[in-house]
Amino acid sequence: MTARLRMRSLQKSFGATRALRGVDLEVGPGEVHALIGENGAGKSTLMKILSGAHAPDSGTIELDGKPFRPANPMHARHSGVSMIYQELNLAPHLSVEENIMLGEEPTRLGWIDRSRRRARAAAALAELRHEGIPLDAPVSSRPVAEQQIVEIARALITQPKLLIMDEPTSSLTDVDTKNLFQVIHRLRERGVSVIYISHFLEECQEVCDRLTVLRDGESVGTGAMAETPVPQIIRMMVGREIADTYPRGEREMGEPLLEFRNLAGFAKPKSATLSLRKGEILGIAGLIGAGRTETLRACFGLDAIRSGEVWMESRECTRATPGQRLSDGIGLLSENRKEEGLMLNRSLADNLTVTRYDPVSRFGIVQAGAQREASQKLMDSLEVRAESPDQPVGELSGGNQQKIAIGRLLHHQAKVLLLDEPTRGIDVGSKVQIYRLMDQLAASGKGVLFVSSYLPELLGVCDTIGVMCRGTLSEVRPVADWTEHSIISAAIGQTE
Amino acid sequence: MAPTASNRTSKLRRLMNVLGPFFGLILVVVLFGMLLYIQDIRSEMEFDGATGFKAFMETARSIEYAQSDTFPGLKAFLSGANSKIIFIQTVIVAIGALGMTMIIVSGGIDLSVGSVVALTSVVGASLLVKEYHPALVILLTVLAGGGIGLINGLTVAGLRMMPFIVTLGMMGIARGLAKWMAGNQTVNSPPSFVNSMMAMHEPMQFLPLPPGVWLAVLLAAGMAVVLQQTVFGRYVFAIGSNESTARLCGIRVRMHKVLIYTLAGLFFGFAGLMQLSRLTQGDPTVAIGLELDIIAAVVIGGASLSGGTGSILGSMIGALIMAVLRNGSNQMGWPNYMQEIIIGIVIILAVGLDRLRQRRATTE
User: d(Cα B165, Cα B167) in Å, to the nearest integer?
Assistant: First the structure.
């Protein structure tokens, strides 16, 4: 029997980054195949190649024994490969029917054939046993689980041979997840192959027949789901040696600076508890979407707090605006440098000093000379490669931009630094400088809360690590008690 | 680190941001000068019905042999008296642009300016009719503009509404209020020194300029300092450049938005006062579409409607460019509709050139 999909030594590079180093993947007809890997293992690149968004550099893809090179998502779809993305891709104001048939509207003489459109949309929902969803309702008025069904129905319109689902349960409740599994079973009975991407191994065990594990852009293992125990899967996911070296000076931990007590926001986090001491670097690990960013945002006053408490230097101060937090001595580095972290068209000097103009202004008038001098000092100590403090920050490279964003916290003389993915998307040299800086800050008695998706750096830099899973952060342990294996287990909700 | 070539070009680019509108102004003046010069010669030569290319060639030839040094059109255009008129025509747009620059830099927009100018001019005239002291009238008129701005700001910030919608509504409300207050007719203001703020003494000489012009210059200088040098000004830029960052940096975004719209409203009230002074009456139907002239001036001056860029100097030059275009077209004897077409083209050209320049800058 020929495989539905067969990929052989697929490779893809983006500039100097080798996203895929050699991926083999084989999916049979009517097979549900789990694709498992850490953040950044190459899953999304692989899926983007399959859906036609990227072209591979080398390697072969065969669909039902014939070479398959999709030119664009529409081409992939019409060749029988449909994709359901993690974030729902629906037009919120259009009706359920219009969304299901979007881009595939049946026409007669150039006019939309409404009765046929209705019939086909209804048939797609019926196939999923969800006839109850009203076709005329705006899709945004339906619950998320139904929106997901609409998304699947849309994927089914083109009669796909292969359906790719990327983290389909991340926004679903347990009951909806069970329903989704039934839908997947029905698809399997019809002979549709499914690639199921998920971080949650118990889900994969429940719904998948076989699995392939990706690590650092390579497929490192494949097998039948029933015959592969979870510890073995996790071992395949981690696999690497901790080769990087991290600077670590003499640090001494003092009294608690910042504490969360069952901190909860409105969607996330559900409950976060930790205590950050002077001179400590506390890492927060977890999957994307686990609520790590939201925890920092709630603490900093950017998102509303529903319940729980925030304590700063033994003083309860749960509710606060970002301005008050800054005057408490807390600084936040946003994970999203371009959208939130920096004012790209403003000067380095303004970006550095905006939270604390007092030392560089007199009677509300900014002293340009003093501002430039203070900025230059920070730029020198952070080794920022720039022409002058007057340059717009958008002209710098990613690593240098990040240094400016961190420099702002230094200028603010924050006692507590909340760093959200500070090394994301920057070059290795800048990364090492940022690790060194974090070490120096901790050594000088500041507290650093360090959110990262890259486990080696968490293990290398932190004194203590907490793992967040589905909105809950409770287990904070010394770094010596953690391994990559145990962190991943905790992050995907597997208790050892 | 030694300055590299790209460093130097980026410095040049930033210099161009400042000088661009200046060149535009000079270009417009020179262009109209040349047009008027040609027109002068042609009217002197009295062509016998030659048209098209032939007429053009004859004109070109005649420039070489032009003996006359009268050039009435060109001289009138460049005369002190005409410059004075241009400045006076600029004042209202310029004062409005002071407030508008701040709003646009913060990422907002205000469409209610024309109506607010009409309303405040009616308020001022009505108060003068009731024989309030002129100084008090000035204060109350300006405050009336500030009041409208405060309502705009509170609505934008409090209800988190798009400024476009809020001020579009206010455009209607203020215009209606003005007509209501004035009983749907103009309110003649009795003579007082309010009327003399824009009065043209010695119309044939450049000096003295009416006090309104000097006031506008003074306010512009003050505003330039506020926007460029003060912490408040930096916050305005920060909010317009990236509102999320501003929030992240502890700037009280909503409070500042209220402040920005209120402060701008004060300027619009002041522009209304100038309008009153110029017409010596409060007219509820005056200044229709003024907001678009003001926005055009700000945008020609280098501001971006997406916020975060713009300067007072640029906006002032933008306002001057608009006035020179109007005045020059008048001098040419072009009909009103030609002026409108030309101004429209200039706006698109100015902003289009700016875009091109920026695109080149980012792809470098």
Answer: 6
